[in-house]
Amino acid sequence: MFLSREAEYAIQALLRLTLHKDEHYVSIKTLAKELNISEYYLSKILQKLVKKNILKSHKGPKGGIAFFDSPEKISMLDIVVAIDGKEIFEGCVLGLYRCESDDPCSLHERWLKLRDQIQQMFSDESLAQLGENPELIRRSQKFINIKQKASKSKNKIS
Amino acid sequence: MFLSREAEYAIQALLRLTLHKDEHYVSIKTLAKELNISEYYLSKILQKLVKKNILKSHKGPKGGIAFFDSPEKISMLDIVVAIDGKEIFEGCVLGLYRCESDDPCSLHERWLKLRDQIQQMFSDESLAQLGENPELIRRSQKFINIKQKASKSKNKIS
DNA sequence: TATAAATTTTATAAATTTATCTGATACTCT
DNA sequence: AGAGTATCAGATAAATTTATAAAATTTATA
């Protein structure tokens, strides 16, 4: 799993949000139900996006969250970095000390190129582009159930 | 961090082991001291490699671990998969449900290619090739100290 | 202005990963 | 055979990530 679960949920929530185009603010509760995860957990995650000005929020009745900018202007990289930080694109792939220096490991150059390409992939893709497949977004809700069940049974068996 | 800490330690330990070329068996205790990590923890990790026939072990005095095959025949991928499993090269990068099906997300193809290239990178590189830079291997010992300090202070400050 | 709806903040719990410890077993050597 | 050395296996502990709950704050509107 290249991204943290939080980053995955953030992306899934924002994708859901693109399906609510007309509404001014959408409550986190609603999104949480649609994604089938805890309202509180989602709040926590989305707050990070509010602080990074990817979302704006409004309290009280008729409140909720909304995009700060339009989804066309939000790249996947924006979201990923807001949640997981830019550190996931840093460091030696083997965890070797001082590998970034003038005497790197033999995988270094190759890894750097691949990592940059991953980063480029995320920055090339806007939320709006990903949102062009609403069917996929709707399907993605069930995944959480499966994940939770999988980790539970894994615990029991092994 | 693309690889788990265990996988990183496994690689570092095997790299260390290549520096002990002449000896028949090297004790895990010795390796653990060189890497500056817990002897017991390293045991646990290396046991996985024993079970996967990457290492062989021998109990008692003059015992320890040794390569089952020569480092030339061991790829980085062998080690990574032995510890982290092949799952790290599977699934949708965004965690979307059924993304692998006939209706994938718009990042899917691009991610698949990159992921395959990462896998290829690991399988192209043998332990022996990485071991050709003994200075780097020796330096890598200190990294663990830094990591441990970093996570401790992180805890205290934030 | 009171009430209900919503986010925000803080606390708590569960699960997983990371790390250490202990006892058992196997082996070498004298 | 006995003493010492080393892995092996399973239990335990600490740290981090993942998830939930409860209390505090803000806001719309009746």
Q: What are the low-pLDDT stretches of chain A, counting only 5+ consecutive residues below 50?
A: 142-158
Q: What is the global morphology of chain A? A: elongated
Most extensive chain interface and residues per partner: A-B, 43 and 43 residues
Estimated radius of gyration of chain A: 18 Å
Helical region count of chain A? Answer: 8
User: What percent of residues of chain A are in strands?
Assistant: 5-15%
Number-wise, the strands of chain A total 2
How is this structure best described in words?
- The structure is a homodimer of 158-residue chains.
- In chain A, β1 and β2 form a beta hairpin.
- A two-stranded antiparallel ribbon of chain A has the order 1-2.
- Chain A has 8 helices and 2 strands; from the N terminus they run αααββααααα.
- Chain A starts with a helix and ends with a helix.
- The C terminus of chain A is likely disordered.
- The radius of gyration of chain A is 18 Å and the shape is elongated.
- Chain A has one domain: Winged helix-like DNA-binding domain superfamily/Winged helix DNA-binding domain (Arc Repressor Mutant, subunit A), CATH 1.10.10.
- By secondary structure, the first copy, chain A, is mainly alpha-helical.
- At the A-B interface, α1, α5, α7 and α8 of A face α1, α5, α7 and α8 of B.
